[in-house]
Amino acid sequence: IIYNNTHENCSDSDWTIILGDRHYNVHRIHLVSADFFKGCFGFPTPETNLTKILPHLCHNIVDGILDYMYGEEIMLKTETLAAYAKAAHILQIQIDIQARVLGCFWCIIN
Questions:
Q1: What is the average per-residue pLDDT within 35-60?
Q2: Residue 10 confidence (pLDDT)
Q3: Using H for helix, E for strand and C for coil, what is the string for 43-93?
Q4: What sign does the dihedral 4-78-76-19 (CA atoms) show?
Q5: How far is residue 104's CA from residue 10's CA, in Å, rounded to a whole number?
Q6: Ramachandran class of 71: left when φ > 0, alpha when ψ lies in -120 to 50, beta otherwise
Q7: For the residues 34-62, what does the mean pLDDT come to?
Q8: CA torsion sign, 83 to 24 to 49 to 89?
């Protein structure tokens, strides 16, 4: 996990994403590709609380979403496919992911 292991307590992060009791110290340069976050950057507080914005279904996949936004390839499982699609829609992330689902490659373009 790029964003978390490298930047969890990093002093050079410039934005915080809050999800319940988890705080993700991230970099706006990696979030700017999502229209949702671009809209958040105009607020005076350097954080976004996603706890009430993302449905509970999506809370367990935020790590993967952030990995994707940091340039990592992510492998989707059938049981998380709906959560990724929902989170990408809400956060307005243009996703182009190749996922291995049921032994096939699917390309999801949102």
A1: 93
A2: 60
A3: CCCCEEECCCCCCHHHHCCHHHHHHHHCCCCCCCCCCCHHHHHHHHHHHCC
A4: negative
A5: 38
A6: left
A7: 93
A8: negative
Q: Per residue in 84-103, is it b (16+ CB within 10 Å) or e — as a string?
A: bbebbeebebebebebebee
CA–CA gap between residue 23 and residue 85 (Å, rounded): 22
Distance between CA atoms of 43 and 91, rounded to whole angstroms?
17
- Tell me the C-alpha to C-alpha distance, in Å, between residue 25 and each of 16, 21, 33, 85, 98: 5, 13, 17, 23, 27
How confident is the model over 71-108, as pLDDT tens digits?
888 888 889 889 998 999 999 987 664 444 444 444 44
In sequence order, which residues have a C-beta less than 8 Å from that of residue 104 and are 6 or more positions away? Answer: none
Helix (H) or strand (E) holding 28: helix 28-31
Q: How much of the chain exceeds pLDDT 90, in percent? A: 49
Residue-level length of the chain: 110
